[in-house]
């Protein structure tokens, strides 16, 4: 694991000219950012269902992430070792990221997280309305991620969840021209829980996103993937609702489960481009510019080529170091730019860190606030 | 039930050879922890349908268990014994459904955060087994050949990047007759060393003529079986309460006859083909995935002396629900994307060949079909070199193998 972190650090220092963060003294960065706590916004992007170093930060992989390398990393604090010690399934791992607790719910069941989500902490402690916390998620399986089943929190206290593909299905009523935007990963056709009815979704489109069905359909025709559709919805959401806490789950990369390397690489390149697009939206929207922290991190990695028990990039089943160890970058006011931190973090540290930044307590989280941000 | 309660009659549902194997090793099986035994039974219950190399390997593993001392037994299995299982797992019919038990075990290990402990125990067991019972050396040095890029007129893609450091990269191969040269080479090896399931030709599309000395499988020949499987998968996806886990259970219960794969009079090969389609992720929809996975499984299980895998264009990406349906029309292909898939598939084929015994003496060749680019790796081939001389594949074979 140490070797993995050293490789990422070396790649980044060589390619992007970053400084090693452990040599710098921490300071009260966020309090120095000049942004009052009540005005701070946070956007989290989960990077597409997991990608490995050799297709991203290793020298041979950097061609796949030009936007992260050239545009975002130089502006970010980069953590080379974010370890996921939980279950490596996308829904349960994303739920763990969002609760700060290693969730044990069935990855393929339509269940809410067991522990309070970051959205519930945020809304209760800061007395924020439902419209201030949103999740944009790729597939119907994520429809319960906005709020937990915890007895002290739960229904009505979490984030609102938009499922763009469900929205598109409702708007187009299955018109063939849009099927490329309804692609899903290999397993999802066998896991399609019922979500809210079409009327509710179309009502969301009109009232919340200020989009007519026709405009939505017309624009959707210009897009090429489900994650592009998600980012389109995110931009509308940022303009119309400007939530303070916005969580975007990318998923195109997970086509890797079907075993086609070229499609996996296409997914990484698209996600790289979309991450920059979201950052540019943050910088250009008045409600977000100068007061938003963006976190980008995978939910976990994928199996290494060296583990004979797996089949390399295709899956994340072995539980090896490569599949458990990922990275995280943070950008925005108060974040030191161009710094690499080598010390290991836990993926459950994200929620208490967001809590410290925004002023709420993630009291049931297993993680700890990341000191380098405080 | 726990392993110590095992009785011979409980294996009456096993195929004949597997039953004999189990009852002949009953005392050893009784001493194994429940977290370990079903994984072994999963292999044993398939004994009648295993390749010769697998049978020998399993017999040697079981023979080793018989000679372990008490202290060795503790050393080998104490970490497995420390894995905590639920009472419902003890009640499961793990004797007759070991594969289903192992699926449940995997979910249990992840949920109870015991995956790392199990992984460590399994890795250490594998290391000890290899030390105590070293795998057999091959009768002759192994050769693997990957043919990539069928149907691609030209490409700027930098092929064989991950392999170049290990061998000689050729830039001016005379492509004429190349495919036949490779197939002839494989056939001659098979005829000279006639060992069952030791020489393979796998094609990701329409195969070239396959010599009877080779074990041949192809994506095209499996079209009827694939379509039957896709129909079953589609039906399963429409069933209430369906999910990936249910699908796996349904697919694990399929027999070759369910997909009309039992026509060839070779139950071992039929079962292998069934497993390629039912256990491989994506093998039902992408020919490149099928070819890569088939090569991997052939190397892992049959441990061949000769393997030739030829990749063919896969269908273009479509919505997954569509791809998992029986196609109603001719599918649009993606040759350029398939070239990238096959390039990585060639690399994985080499990696999997390197995991077998005799790796240091093994040879590997990958060729861009109908083009001038190839890579050759072997004990006598200088690493990291480039040849810009005009040569043909027969010459490359003679210098490499």
What does this structure look like?
- The complex is a heterodimer of chains A (374) and B (401).
- Chain A is an alpha/beta fold.
- Chain A has one domain (2-373): Alkaline Phosphatase, subunit A, CATH 3.40.720.
- Chain A has twelve helices and ten strands.
- In chain A, α9 runs parallel beside α10.
- Chain A is globular and about 50 Å long.
- The relative contact order of chain A is 0.23.
- The mean pLDDT of chain A is 87.
- Chain B folds into two domains: 3-132, no CATH class; 143-400, Alkaline Phosphatase, subunit A.
- Chain B contains 17 helices and ten strands.
- In chain B, the strands form two sheets. Chain B has an eight-stranded mixed sheet with strand order 5-4-6-1-7-8-2-9, sandwiched between helices. A two-stranded parallel ribbon of chain B has the order 3-10.
- In chain B, β7 and β8 (374-377) form a beta hairpin.
- In chain B, α3 packs antiparallel against α7 (98-111) and α5 packs antiparallel against α8.
- Chain B is globular, with a radius of gyration of 23 Å.
- The chains are: A alpha/beta (374), B alpha/beta (401).
- At the A-B interface, α10 of A face α8, α11, α12, α14 and α15 of B.
């Amino acid at each position: 694991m140490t070797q993995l972190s050293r490789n990422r650090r070396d790649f980044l220092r060589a390619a992007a000219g970053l400084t090693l963060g452990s040599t710098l003294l921490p300071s009260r960065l966020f309090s120095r950012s000049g942004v009052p706590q009540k005005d701070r916004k946070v956007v989290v992007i989960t990077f597409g269902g997991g990608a490995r170093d050799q297709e991203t930060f290793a020298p041979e992989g950097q061609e796949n992430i030009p936007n992260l390398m050239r545009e975002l990393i130089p502006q970010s604090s980069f953590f080379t070792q974010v370890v996921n010690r939980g279950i490596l399934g996308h829904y349960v791992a994303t739920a763990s990221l969002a609760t700060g607790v290693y969730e044990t719910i069935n990855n393929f069941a339509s269940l809410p997280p067991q522990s309070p989500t970051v959205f519930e902490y945020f809304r209760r402690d800061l007395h924020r309305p439902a419209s201030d916390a949103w999740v944009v998620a790729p597939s119907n399986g994520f429809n319960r991620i906005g709020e937990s089943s915890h007895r002290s929190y739960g229904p009505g206290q979490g984030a609102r969840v938009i499922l763009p593909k469900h929205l598109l299905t409702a708007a187009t009523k299955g018109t063939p021209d849009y099927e490329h935007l309804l692609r899903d990963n290999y397993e999802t056709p066998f896991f399609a829980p019922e979500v809210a009815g079409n009327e509710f979704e179309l009502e969301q489109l009109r009232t919340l996103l200020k989009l007519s069905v026709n405009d939505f359909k017309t624009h959707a025709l210009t897009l090429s993937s489900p994650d592009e559709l998600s980012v389109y919805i995110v931009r509308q959401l940022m303009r119309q609702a400007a939530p303070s806490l916005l969580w975007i789950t990318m998923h195109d990369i997970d086509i890797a489960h079907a075993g086609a390397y070229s499609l996996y690489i296409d997914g990484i390149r698209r996600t790289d481009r979309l991450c920059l697009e979201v950052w540019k939206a943050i910088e250009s929207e008045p409600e977000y510019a100068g007061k938003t922290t963006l976190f980008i991190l995978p939910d976990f990695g994928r199996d290494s080529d060296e583990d004979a028990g797996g089949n390399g990039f295709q899956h994340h089943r072995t539980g090896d170091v490569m599949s458990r160890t990922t990275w995280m970058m943070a950008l925005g006011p108060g974040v030191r730019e161009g710094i690499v931190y080598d010390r290991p973090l836990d993926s459950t540290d994200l929620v208490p860190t967001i809590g410290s930044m925004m002023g709420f307590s993630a009291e049931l989280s297993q993680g700890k606030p990341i000191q380098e941000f405080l | 039930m726990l392993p110590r309660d095992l009785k011979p009659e409980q294996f009456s549902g096993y195929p004949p050879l597997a039953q004999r194997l189990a009852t002949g090793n009953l005392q050893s099986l009784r001493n194994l922890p429940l977290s370990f035994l079903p994984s072994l039974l999963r292999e044993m219950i398939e004994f009648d349908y295993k390749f010769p190399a697998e049978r020998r390997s399993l017999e040697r593993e079981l023979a080793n268990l018989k000679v372990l001392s008490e202290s060795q037994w503790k050393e080998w299995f104490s970490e497995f014994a420390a894995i905590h299982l639920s009472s419902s797992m003890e009640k499961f019919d793990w004797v007759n459904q070991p594969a289903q038990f192992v699926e449940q075990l995997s979910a249990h290990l992840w949920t109870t955060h015991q995956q790392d402990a199990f992984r460590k125990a399994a890795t250490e067991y594998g290391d000890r087994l290899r030390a105590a019972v070293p795998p057999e050396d091959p009768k002759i040095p192994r050769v693997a050949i990957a043919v990539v890029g069928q149907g691609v007129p030209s490409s700027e893609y930098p092929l064989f990047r991950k392999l170049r450091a290990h061998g000689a990269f050729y830039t001016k191969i005379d492509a004429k007759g190349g495919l036949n040269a490779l197939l002839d080479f494989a056939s001659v090896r098979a005829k000279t060393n006639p060992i069952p399931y030791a020489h393979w030709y796998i094609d990701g599309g329409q195969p070239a003529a396959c010599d009877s000395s080779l074990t041949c499988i192809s994506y095209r020949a499996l079209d009827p079986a694939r379509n039957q499987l896709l129909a079953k998968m589609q039906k399963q996806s429409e069933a209430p309460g369906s999910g990936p886990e249910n699908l796996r259970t349904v697919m694990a219960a399929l027999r070759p006859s369910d997909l009309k794969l039992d026509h060839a009079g070779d139950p071992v090969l039929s079962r292998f083909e069934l497993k390629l389609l039912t256990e491989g992720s994506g093998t039902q929809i992408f020919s490149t995935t099928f070819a890569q996975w088939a090569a991997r499984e052939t190397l892992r299980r049959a441990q061949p002396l000769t393997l030739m895998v030829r990749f063919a264009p896969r269908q273009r990406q479509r919505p997954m629900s569509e791809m998992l349906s029986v196609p109603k029309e001719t599918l649009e292909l993606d040759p350029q994307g398939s070239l990238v898939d096959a390039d990585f598939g060639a690399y994985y084929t080499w990696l999997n060949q390197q995991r077998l015994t005799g790796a240091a003496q093994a040879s590997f060749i990958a060729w861009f079909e109908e083009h001038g680019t190839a890579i050759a790796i072997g004990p006598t081939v200088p690493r990291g070199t480039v040849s810009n001389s005009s040569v043909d594949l027969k010459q490359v074979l003679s210098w490499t193998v």
